[in-house]
Structures are given as structure tokens and as C-alpha cells.
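Per reviewer request, we include the raw input and output of the structure prediction for the construct analysed in the revised manuscript.
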Amino acid sequence: MHVQHGNERQLETPWAETAGRVVAAIDTSSETGLTRDEVKRRRRQYGLNRMRRNRRRRAIEVFLYQFKSIIVLILVGAALLSFAFGHAVDGLAISVAVLVNTLIGFVMEMRATRSMESLRRMEQIRAKVLRDGQVQEVAADGLVPGDIVLLEAGDIVSADMRLLEANKARADESALTGESVPIDKNTDPTPHDAQLSGRSNMLFKGTALTAGSCKGVVTHTGMDTALGRISSLVQEAQDETTPLEKRLERLGQRLLWITLGILVVVALAGIVRGKDVILMIQTAVALAVAAIPEGLPIVATVAMARGMLRMARRNALVNRLAAVETLGSTTVICTDKTGTLTENRMTVKRIVLDQSEFSIDEDSGNSSVFFRDHESVEPGAHPALISLLQAGVLCNNASLGAEADGPAVGDPLEVALLEAGARAGIERRRLIQQYPEEREESFDPSVKMMATFHQDDARYRVTVKGAPEAVLDACSSVQCDEDSHDLTSEDRQHWKDRNLRLAEQGLRTLALAHKTSESVDAAPYNDLTFLGLVAMADPPRAAVAEAISRCRSAGIRVVMATGDHTATAKAIAAAVGLSDDQDEAIEGKHILPVDELSEQQREHLIHASIFSRVSPEQKLHLIDLHKTAGAIVAMTGDGVNDAPALKKADIGVAMGQRGTQVARDAADMILKDDAFSSIVVAVEQGRIIFRNIRKFILYLLSGNASEILVVFLASLLNWPLPILPLQILFLNIVNDVFPALALGVGEGETDTMKRPPRDPREPVLPVVYWWAIVGYGLLIALPVLAGFRLATAAFGLSEENAVTVSFLVLAFARVWHIFNMRNPESHLLHNEITANRYVWGALVLCGVLLAAVAYIPGLSAVLSLSGPRPAEWGLICVLSLIPLVVGQAIKALRRFTFSRDDG
């Protein structure tokens, strides 16, 4: 049964049909794919290959969500009590305060939410597809039914497709079927009524190819896929609560209980002393609002979202918000070599044959780019060289692109082999027509080789490439110029020595071999003829040495774990400044599970910086080793086999250019440029974000503590209240939100990466910060009380007018207090606070609002304020500057003391 769509038919049960019938029904070609015009037509017909987006929270929902806060509900209750007791003005003012506070929370959450959505849109899955007879890499949402897709181990399946070819292919379909074991795939038809997990000739959107390679024809896209049908029945998932948000929530809960205790004491003390009950209830509620920064989680989200956007601009995409917090405490970075420390731009530099050696010069001005003994040569005049180049082109899955300047597709090592062949006039398309490929033995990490079988008249030409040691062990003879001779044990050692010398020069080596077989089912890895060695260069990235130096200054250790030869690993490590030539490189076979290592072995491995011949499993052991020692580990990876290590590390970092989709999905962070320096930038931003969060928490809580202390001390002294409930609410909105946001989005200190990483077990606010909160609170509260007393005693103001002085002293003292948030070691005038343009904007805004409420009729009446005279302004300025002056003096004293201790 099928559904007709134009010329093509979208089969309902493609798994029950033969591959040929499916291709014919969908009206496509397995050899050339669809044409560009046909793709456009089908895209108009079927739409983009996208899942229906989860319904985005509407603005009204985000607005109403702000009223779920227990603090806001308390405020609403206070407003209702005010109306009930006949205090309509107070009730209206509290209602306005609630509305303004809610609007601020609404705007900040909307911006944070949209920032996160923009980050998610920056990452897009790509797919290799056959169109117009050429292999192309396209955005997966552009796939249409009839597209011929090529997949390799590690790729995410981007649409439902019927397999046309399958070479040892296995797929992880746990996301759809719940089966934890990967499913073996083939091309044989299955019954019509086969369950999803039984359709062994199908690949489904959202699953992953874990082994082998295959070719498939797209049968369904978008919401017509199995995943689309299932997802339409699933409700939207709840947003993840990050560890930092949980800690901030716990901090808020503790503050709530502390504040409840204080406000009960304040309210009872005022009522016992005969103060108005409603006034004391409103004061108590206002104190609760002042003491608990209910907007803190939102400000934290804005700070992290802004930091993540900064990272994105520097080529680091963060998948999970929780990763931002952990980044700042990273102590060990385990990095791969290829593409991360190096450019991942492989080019063949030398070709070593039995009796001769050739070099390739891409920049040569001669017509030939092949040289022997510094003299140019024609490759066609050397049969052994042509045999090796042909083997490299045949045993290959890469493509050089449809046009001369088009992007190459595939593994950089295989692309380099195709480019070397092309320079000798050997093009893969023509060679494959002469020797059609009949079978592929995919690269197997356990044997470290790959093989292909090609039709050669009535026989088969077998080509093999792989690690030199492995290929040599599988060979029985070696190719000479015109013939071959037996490969003796002395010959094997000779080739291994030549391989070692090349590796010591930082070159990556590959061996090639071939043979002739009577059967396509013959074992590929025996009785081979050794053709020679190909040595490729992958130069170090220009910025890596500086990035590693910055890591050292920041107390972060860099460990290189590569699958390359030991000598190659040492050469690259020395070139990027990770080590010198004398440092030891440890082979992966020595990295055992932690519980199998002696104490001496653990210490030896922990202090090593270079690991070679490392397998994915050994990467897991290496992560375990460092985590057991108390390190916070970031691990880079690109392959499907790296996914467990990326998951296990505290921060998994996947490569955006050469990384598989499985690795990207497992990672916390994706590097768009695959560069190690981008990791260092992300770590720096993680540190800056966490320190910004600490700064604005300290600022908020110390300012709120000053309000509590003013009311608490006035009650103990039986004074009139120096600051009224509505005034506290106003300060909570103005002085909390804008300066805190300015601190949260700051660029950070210039010496961020010159300090050791923080202890990840350290709470958001260590004990010393709590002492600072109390100290700053007293430092602000005492001038406020002094201002209130001087206004009545020295200036002869009434208690009602004196409240204006104490209110403005408190307000401006908190405004200037933002400069006390600078690092004690920073310069008085040139520091991270004064360099923050948002701080100056917040100060101007706060100053304008405070002046407005003192002089604008209506606003001043609601807040019980009167316009101060010049002499009163002088008193306000002097007293409000005292916390800043004293705070800066304490920082200067600390800096002087530390510098003398260091001396």
C-alpha cells in the first residue's frame, strides 16, 4: 500500500518492500540521487524536515508566572489588608509596587528565555546526501523523500529511510523503542506487521548509527516520521533546574526563615511599644521583601545567558545552562590532538616506498609537485608510486566535492589521500568506474585497518589502509618498482624504524597494502603486499601555545590524550608548548581502572601530560583517575565512541566541525571551530559569570541587610521609623534590580585567568561573604540612623521631614555601594566596576528616579517625602558617601597588607 504524491509515491510500509521497489516507487536514483530542481519541488510539497516546535510560552503566561512567588503573594496580602483597614493610598502603592516588580521580572525572564532560544538555533544538524551524482553536505532540515543519504558510525539519522546498502551497520534506537542494545541493520525486507524494533532495514529520525556505514533512501520527513508521530503525543517537557538555581533557591529559603524571625521580633517590639499595628505589619512584610532578593534567580539566568552568548560569539556553544557554573571551576582539560591542538588540515608530505622516497610540495612553482631527491618527477613513471596512490583513492569514503573549489566531505586523512591522488591525475570517480567497489570492511579500532574489494575482470582487487604496525603484521610481501619480494622479519623492523623516524618529526603515518582475491568474501587482512608509508602533516594551531600558557597561569592542567603514535604525540606536544622533548609520553595500555592501579602508578599517571595510543575506554579510566583525585575535568571528543567519556567528564566538549552528532548530543559544550583556544575562552567566561553572580548577591544582600538593621535598631531604640514600608518597597525595586543587573553582565577582571580555579565544593557565599554582608549592612545603616537623628536635632526638621533625609541617605549609600564590589586587589579608579558601562547607566537611572520621587508631586506624597533644601542635600551627600569611603579604605588596607606579606 502506498500514498501517491505527484510522480513519486510515499510508501506506508517500505520495510516490507525490496530496496529496488522502494527506489522506483519514490521515483529516485540510488546512483545519482535527486536533481536540484526536483529537490526544490519536493520541498515545496512536503515542507522542511523539522519536528513541530514545542509551543513557546506566551508572554501572558510568563507574566502570570511572576505571581507564583510566595513573596509576591505576601505583598498582595499586605495590599488587601491595607484596603481592609482603610489605608487606600498604601494599598494602592503596594499594588503598584507589586505590578512594577512583576513587570521587571517579566521583562528579564522574557529576555533570558529568548537568549537561550537563540543559542539553540545556532546549532544545526548536517547530512551527507547524493544529489546530481555528487556527495554533498546539506542542512538536515532540507532533506526530502527520495534523497539518497550516506551515513557512518556516529551520525544522527535525520529522517526515516529505507536502507539500500548496509556494511556492518548498527543503530541505537533506544530513544524510540527503549531497547538499550543497538540493532543490527541489513537490506532484506521484513514482514508488513513488523514492530518498530523489528524493522531491521529501516533507520529512523532521531536515532544514531553506532557502527558501520550505510546508504539509505529517505521515505518520510518531519512530522511524518516515526519520531514525529510519537512526539505529537508527548507533552512539552519541563525546563531543567540547574544546580546553581537550586543552590540559589536554598539560599533564598534560608534567608526567608532568618527574615521571618527578624520581622516577627520587629513587629512585636513595635506593637508592644504602641506603634500602629497596620504600619508594623506593612513594615514587616516590606522587610521580608527587602531581605529576600526574589528576582535573584532571574538575574542569575540573565547573567548566564549573556555569558553564553559571549561564548557563542567566541565559537563555544553551551548546550546546558548547568555547564556554565562548572566551567569556572575546571582544573584539568583532557584534549585530543587532531583538530583541537592542530588545524585538522591533513596533507600528504612524504611517500616512502621500498626503494625510493617521494615528497609532495603543494606550493611548488613547477608543473609537477612530486619530488625525489629534490628533483621533480612524473608519478606515472613510477609504477609502485601509482599503485600506492590508487590504493589510497580506492580504500576511501571521502569526496573532494562537486567543483574544484567546493568543500571536501569526509575524514581529513582520507581527503588528503584523495588530494594526493588527484595531483598525480588519479580521480576517484574514474577509478571507481574502472574498479567498481563490491564490498567494504569498515575501519575496526580493534584491528586498526580498513579494506575495500573492487571488481577487476573476473577477480577482485583488495586495498587496505591502516596503522603501520597492523598492516605490516598482515603482509607477507613488499612491493618493489616492478615486482615484489617476501617480507622478512628484518624488513618488518626496517619499516617500523622508518615509521618511527617519520613520527618523531610530527608526521602522522599510514600504511597501504593490496592483494588480488578470487572471492569477494575472502578474508581481507592476510597475505597482503605492503605498498609503503604515507606521512601526513597536521600543523599546530597558531593560538594553541598562548592558550596553554593561559591555562598554566589559571592553575589549569592540560593533558593530551590521542590515538596517534607516541613519537607524533611528543612532537606536537613540544610544538604547542605543552611539554618539552624530555617529557615522557605514556601509552594508553598503561591507563587501567583506578582500583587496579597502585598508589605509585596513580601518581605517575596523574602528573603525566602526554598519552598516546589511547582508546575511548582508556579515556574513561583517565577521567576517573583525575576525578578521584578531586579534579574537575573537561574532556574533548568527536567520535561516537567518545560519547561515554563526554558524558562522564564534568564538562564534555564536542567538536562542531568534525564531531559526530552522537558526540555533540552527549557534550555540554560544542566548539564551532574545533579550536582548543575556544575552550580556554569558555572557561574564562565561566569564571566571570560565577564571580558576577557572587558580586550581585553580595550587593543585594548587604543592601537588604542595611534596611533590616535600620528598622531593627530604630525599634530597639524606640525611635520613629527612619524609613517607611513603601520607601523600602521602592528601594527594593530601584536599588536592587538595575545595579544588580549591571553587575551580572559585567565583562569581569582582566586577571581572571591568572588566578587558580575555585573549589567546586565551595558554596555560593562562603563564610567570609556572610561577614561582609553584616559588615556592609552596619556600615550603611549607621549613617542612615545618624542622618535621621541629625535632621531632627541639628536641622530642626520634624520626624516626617527627617524621614526624607534618612531615606535618601540610605538610597544613595546603596547606589555608591556598588563601587565596593570591586576586587580588593584591583586599582581604585581603574577596575572591573568602573569599566562596566552598565554600572554607570544604572547609577544615572537610579539618581534620576530618586530625585524624581523627592520633587514630583504625587510621587513624593505617596512615599511621604519632601524636597530637601541645599543644606540637607549636603548632609545626605556626606553621610551617603561614608560607606563608600570606609569600604574603599578597608580594601586599600587589605591590598597594602597583602602586598607586604608577599614581599
